[in-house]
Amino acid sequence: LAGCVVGPEYERPELEDVGGQYDRPGAFTDEARAEYVAWWWSFEDPALSQLVAMAQAENLELAMAQSRVAQARAETKAARSRIWPAINAGSGISRQSMSENGVFGPVVGTFVDRENTVYTGGLDASWELDFFGRVQHATQAAQARRDAFQYAAIDARRIIAAETGWAYLNWRGAEARLRAAEREQVFREALTGLSRARVETGTLSESSLLITLAQLERLRSRIASLRSERDAAVLTLATLTSSTPETVRDRLRAAPDRPPQTTAPLAAGLPSDLLDRRPDLRAAEAQLQAATAELGVRTADLYPRFILVGSLGQESVRLGDLARRASLAWGVGPDISLPIFNAGRLQGLRDVQRERVHESATNYRDQALRAVREVELALVRLTEARHSQDAL
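and the corresponding C-alpha cells:
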C-alpha cells in the first residue's frame, strides 16, 4: 500500500550560483562558528549583554513569533491525529411522531405507535485509509510550516539582538561625541570671552570675533543634535526591550567608559554553510517543503478516498429496555468516494499548488543568493573599516 502514495517527494534545490568561497575571506576563520549566535559576549560589555538578554526575553515581536510557533505546533498535532481512527461517544433522547399519510401510514396506530420517545447511546468511529498519501502529505505540510515558524522565531531573535546591539553602539557613539563636544564648548566659551576682551582693547578685529561666535553656535547646534541622537537610541532600546526609558538609562549608567571592542575571530565559513546556519534560509526551505507536501495533498485529491465507518450502541423506545441485549444496534462498512466530474476544479487546485511550489523554490534561491551577497558585502566593509582604523 505504501507504493500507492502519489505526489512529489521533497529534495533540496541545487544552488550552483552560491559559490565555493567568498571573494575576500581574508583572515576570517571558522573558529567561532559555534559561538557566532551570541556575538555580543565577545565585546565583554555587561550593559550590552544585559540589554540583549532583556530584548530577547521581553520583546513583543518575539512574543508574537513564539505564539505563532505554538499555533503551528497545535496545527501539526491536529494534522497528525488524522492518521488514527476517530471515535465519538454520544447519547440522546427524542420525541417523534409518524405521519398517518406517509409510507408507513397504513400501519401507524395499528402495529406501530404513532408517537414514540427514542433513547439512544453508543459509539461512532471512522478511519480514513490513507492509500494515496493524502493524510501523510497533509501531516508533512503541517510539520514543515511548524519548522518554518520556528526558524522565523529564531531569525527574529537574531534580528532583535542585532538591532539592540546597533542601538546600543549608537548610544555609545553619541554619548562619547557629546562628552567631547561639551568639553569643547567650555573651551570655545572661554575663547569667545577672551576674543571679546581683545576686541575691546583693540587687539582683535570684529570679524575675528564673529568667526569665533559662529564656531560656538555651530558647536551648540551639534550638541543639540547629539543629545537628540542619544535620546533616540535610548527610546529605541526601550522599545526593543519593552521597558521604560528610565529602566534603560539605569542599565546604561552601568556601562563601562571604554568603547566596546572585540578580538573574537569572525565566523565567515563558506557560502554553502549559510544554507544551514541562517534561520531565515531554513525558514524559506521549510516553506518550500510545506508547499511540496501540499502539492501531494492536491494530487491525492484526484484519487479515491476510503473511509471505514462503524457504529455500536443501544436504541430503545423505553428507557428501561435501553440496557438490554435486544436494544443493541450496530453497523460497519467502507465509505468510498471517487471524484468523477468537477469541471476541472481539483486539477485547477493542483496546478495552482504546483506554481506555489515553483514560487517557493524561486524565493528560496533568491534569499540564498541575497544572503551570500550580504555576507560578501559585510566582509568587504569590515576589511576596509579595519584598514581605515589602522590608518587613523
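(Above: one complete record from the training split.) The two ends are 72 Å apart (CA to CA).
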